[in-house]
Amino acid sequence: MQLNTEQLLSQEYERFIEFGTLLDRTTRKYLVEYLKRKISNEAVPSLENMDDLKDTYFQYFRKSLDELFGIDGLLEVVQHNQKMQQQIVMDTLYWLRKSYEKVSAKNPYEDEQKRLEGWGVTPIHVFVERWHFLIDFLKLNYERETLDTDFYRDRFKYLINNSPYAQLGEEQKERLDLLLTDLLAQWDALLNAKILAYQLQHLEEEKQKYSDLVAAKVQEYQKLTKLVSPFAEYLGNYWDMSRDLWQQTSFDVIQKYDELLKNEKSVQELADLLGRMREAEIEIEEEAFEKTIIRQEWVVDEFLKSEITGIHESDDLNNILSSEIALLSDVASESLFLKKYVDKSLITFSYEDKRLQQSKDYKTEIFQKVRQKEKGPFIVCVDTSESMMGRPEQIAKVLCLSILKMAAKENRKAYLINFSIGIETLDLFDIANNLDAIAKFLNMSFYGGTDISLPLYEAFRQLKTNDYKDADILVISDFIMYKVDDDVLREVRFHQQNKNTQFHSLTLSKEPNPYILNFFDTNWAYDPNEQGIIKDLTHALQDLQARY
After folding, report:
1. Are 290 and 363 a contacting pair, CB within 8 Å?
2. What is the pLDDT of residue 436?
3. CB-count burial class (<10 Å; 0-12, 13-18, 19+) for 307
4. Which residues contact 430 (CB under 8 A, 6 or more apart)?
5. Could you tell me the pLDDT band of residue 249, with boundaries at 50, 70 and 90?
6. Which residues have C-beta within 8 Å of that of residue 41, sequence separation ≥ 6?
C-alpha cells in the first residue's frame, strides 16, 4: 500500500525519535514537536512547557531551526508543496543527526578526557603519592581565574604533609577525599565547557553551510517555478541536497526561449494537439480467483458399530441374539438354527453410527478492475544539422521547451534525441537533474550533416522499454535528406501496424523529401518566414482530430 505524504512524514519523525543518535530520546521528541510547529500554523499542545527543557544543545538546535525556517521563501515552499515539505523535513532531520554525530565523534580534548577518567578511578592511597602531577597538569592548562590550583596545592600539602596514606587519621582521610572530589568535579565542569564550546562552534559552521545551501535551493526553486508556472507541483522530486546548484546561465537560456514561446502561439497549439493525441486511456484488468467451498455433513457409516438401533434378520453371527444361540443347545432345534443361518434369517442386532464427512467444491470467479493508464509519453527527434540553422533552429528549440512544459504539467515522460551526424539523448521529464543539460541543448549551435536513421534506431530501442513502450514519435527536421535505411522504414511500418505507434513530423523547410514524409501518420509544415503552423492534414490526422 502506498503511503501518503503525511504518513511518510510521521514515519520519519518516529524513526528520528526512536533511533536517532542525537542527545536523548526526550530531547529528540521535543525537537520533532518543535519542527512540526515551525512548518505548521497550528500550535502543538504538547509544547506548552517546552521552555522547561534547559539543555544547552536543545536550545542551540531550537535556535537553529528558527534561523533555518526564517530563510525567505522556505516556509512558503513547505506549506504549499507536500512533496517538497517531506523532502525538506527529511533533509533537516538528517542534518540535525549527522552534524551532531560529526562534532561528537572527535574533539581536541580527548586526551584530557582520558586523563580525567584515569584520575577519577585512581585509588586514594595512590593519589597521596602522586597528587602533585595532577596539580602541575591543571596549572599548565587552566588560568588561576578559572581554576585556583595554588589553593588545592596548599590544602593537599597541609593534609598529607609528606605522610603515607596509612599514617593519616580518619578525619584527614575524609577531608582529603572531599577535597579531591571537589577538584575533579571542577575539572570535569571546565573540561565539558571547553568541549561544548568547541562543538557549538563547529555546529554553527555546519548549520551555516546547510542554511546557505537551503537558501540557494529556495532561490533555485522560485526561479524554476516562474519558468514552468503555473504547474510547479511536479517539482517535488527537485529537492536533492546532494545535487550541485544549477548554473545561472541555465535559467537565463530557458527564460529566453520561454519568452519566445509566448510569441509562438501556433507552436504551443501544436504541443497541445500532440498532448491530446495520447490522452490517458481506460483499460480493464481481469483477475481470476479460485474459490474453494468446503462442506461438512454427517453420513451413516455401516462399518461403525457404536449404537444399537434395533434388530433384523441376517447371518451375522457376531451380533446374534442369545435366544437364537439357544437353538444350538438342543439336537432337535439345531437343524432349525442351521436352516435360519442358510436363509440369513437369524435375529441379530442392528447397529448404526455416523461420521463427519468433508467435501470440497472449486469455483473460479473473475473480477474486473477498471484503471486509468498513464498519459502517453513522447519521443522527440530534433534535427540539429547545419541546414537547420537560423529560424528553423529557433522553432525546433521553442517546440522542445513547449513539449517539456506540457509533459511536466501532465506528468508525462518525454525523451529528446537530437541528431545530425550522431545523436545525443536527454530525458526531458527529469527536469530536477537535467536543467543544465536542457539549457545546453537550447544554447547549442547546429552543425554537421543529417542522418535520420540513427535517431529512429534509438527511438525503436526506447519503444522496447517499459517507460516508452506506448510513446509517440515526433521528428522535427527540414527533411532535406536523400536516403534512409530500408530497415528503418520497415521498422516504422511494423510499429505503426502492430504496436499502434504514431509517427508525426514537423517540417521546417519548403523542400522536404516527400518519400520520407509519406511514412509518417501526421505531417505538419511550418513556414520559417511566417508565424503559424500550416497543418497539412492527412486522413489519419483528420481521424485523430475527430476522436480528440
Report:
1. yes
2. 67
3. exposed
4. none
5. very low
6. 79
Report long-range pairs for 46-54 (Cβ below 8 Å, ≥24 apart). Answer: 53/26, 53/27
SS3 assignment, position 464? coil
pLDDT digits (tens, 9 = 90+) for 350-399: 776 666 677 777 777 665 554 445 567 888 888 888 888 877 877 777 77
Of the candidates 446, 431, 390, the residue with the CA atom closest to the CA atom of residue 251: 431
Q: Alpha-carbon dihedral of residues 301, 304, 308, 309, nearest 10 degrees?
A: 0
User: Quick one: CA torsion of 62, 63, 67, 69, rounded to 10 degrees?
Assistant: 20
DSSP 235: G
51: Cα separation from own chain's centroid: 35
- Of 45 and 4, the structure prediction assigns the larger pLDDT to 4
**What is the CATH superfamily name and number for domain 271-279+374-547?**
von Willebrand factor, type A domain (3.40.50.410)
Q: 300 phi and psi, to 5 degrees?
A: -75, 135
Rounded Cα gap, residues 241 and 91, in angstroms: 7
Residues 6+ apart with CB under 8 A from 511: 478, 480
User: Angle at CA 143, nearest 5°, toward 108 and 186?
Assistant: 75
Is the pLDDT assigned to residue 137 strictly greater than 90? yes
Greatest distance between any 2 Cα atoms in the chain: 138
Give helix then strand counts, H and E, for the chain: 19, 11
pLDDT, tens only, 98-120: 888 888 877 888 899 999 999 99
Contact, 306 vs 351, CB < 8 A? yes
Report d(CA 138, CA 256) in Å as an integer.
68
Task: Report the b/e string of 509-544 with b at 16+ CB within 10 A.
Answer: beebbeebbeebbbbbbbebeeeebebeeeebbeeb
Phi-psi category of residue 451: left, alpha or beta, with phi > 0 → left and psi -120 to 50 → alpha: beta
| Domain ranges (residues) in the chain | 5-105, 271-279+374-547, 286-363
C-alpha dihedral sign at 110, 115, 116, 121: positive
Report the distance separating Cα 136 and Cα 149, nearest Å: 8
Task: Report which listed range, 141-145, 394-398, 434-438, is most confident.
Answer: 141-145
Lowest-confidence range among 44-53, 436-445, 489-498?
A: 44-53
Q: Which residue has the higher pLDDT, 476 or 229?
A: 476
pLDDT-wise least confident of 34-38, 42-46, 171-175, 256-260: 42-46
Tell whether the model's pLDDT for residue 460 goes beyond 90: yes
Name the pTM for this structure.
0.49
